[in-house]
Specification:
Number of strands: 0
Number of helices: 3
Structural class: mainly alpha
Strand content: under 5%
Helix content: 55-70%
Radius of gyration: 14 Å
Shape: elongated
């Protein structure tokens, strides 16, 4: 019975892990970015780790 919920649990935990990593890397999270993380599921973690934060330009 519990094994039917296991993929959904892994999928949601990976989404939370991606959001946590994005906040630690000071990445801007948007609605489009959240959808792009939710679709590939656990495969999105390497993409978040490879992302670079926006460079702040001082005028």
């Amino acid at each position: 019975m519990m094994t039917t919920y296991l993929p959904a649990l892994v999928w949601s935990l990976s989404a939370f892990a991606c959001l946590f990593i994005a906040k630690r890397l000071s990445l801007k999270t948007t609605a489009v970015g959240a959808v792009l993380v939710a679709l590939p599921g656990p495969l999105a973690i390497p993409f978040v780790l490879a992302a670079k934060p926006d460079q702040c330009k001082l005028a």
